[in-house]
Amino acid sequence: MTPGDPGGLGPELAVRLLAAEPRLFPGRLVIVGSLAALDMHQRRLGIESVYTRLDSLDDVSTLAPGVYGFEPETVKGSQPAPAECVEEGGRVAGECLQTSLDILNRGDAQGLVTGPLCKSTLMAAGFDFPGHTGFLAEGAGLAQDDVCMHLCGPKLRVSLVTTHLPLSQVAAEITGERIVHCLDLTCRFLEKLGVDGPVAVAGLNPHAGEDGLLGREEIEIIAPAVKQAQRLGLQAVGPLPGDTVFHLAACGEFGAVLAMYHDQGLAPLKALHFSDAVNVTLGLPFVRTSVDHGTGFDLVGTGRASTSSLRSAVTLASRLVSGKARSG
Question: Are 160 and 148 in contact (CB under 8 A)?
Answer without folding.
Answer: yes
